[in-house]
Amino acid sequence: MQDKDLELEPVDMYVLFAKMFSHITREVEKACGEEGVKAVREGVRQFGLERGRNIAERAKAMGHENDAKSYLSCYDMGRSELFKSENDIREKTVEQNFTECIFAKQFMEDHDEKYGIHYCEMIDPAIAEGYNEKFKCTHDKHFFKDGCCHFLFEMEE
User: What confidence category does residue 119 fall into, taking pLDDT thresholds of 50, 70 and 90?
Assistant: First the structure.
């Protein structure tokens, strides 16, 4: 048997991220209670705002406006086969229906929905706001209760 036969594929970074997020949120809740969870949520929001600003900069660097039509094409996170969605991109809206999400899958496999929901509820509205303060995100379906995620991003006048 060769050493190569003993090698395993590395664990996907999305899986590791979900696990890390759950562990951090669990420990912050233990140490700080509800105020700690609020701080985690605010940390996710600040992270999302920063990502959104960076996506707007990417759009600008690519010669695009930070409008609805450029949002996904300038997005900062590549989509792997671990995410599956149908996207409807229009002049002023982007609608996404996710049927697979590795983050949600991992949170559910680890029975950490209680912790993962803090990321899921905060990240996309914050990214949209950072991208363009007039770009609003409604996240009305969640994997944890609906078996899928639905987002509607709308550019307000």
Answer: very high
- Rounded to whole angstroms, the Cα distance separating 94 from 97 reads 10
CA–CA gap between residue 127 and residue 115 (Å, rounded)? 20
Distance of alpha carbon 73 from alpha carbon 86, whole angstroms: 14
Residues whose CB falls within 8 Å of the CB of residue 43, separated by 6 or more in sequence, listed in order: none
Determine the length of the chain: 157
Q: What CA–CA distance (Å, rounded) separates 86 from 25? A: 30
- Tokens 């303060």, located at residue: 133
Give the C-alpha separation, 125 to 131, whole Å: 10
The structure's pTM equals 0.91
Q: Which of 74, 63, 62, 77 is nearest to 135 (CA)?
A: 74
Beta bridge partners of 84: 100
CA atoms of 102 and 12, how far apart (whole Å): 9
Spatial contact of 62 and 49, defined as CB atoms under 8 Å apart = no
The tens digit of pLDDT for each residue in 53-78 reads 999 999 999 999 999 999 999 999 87
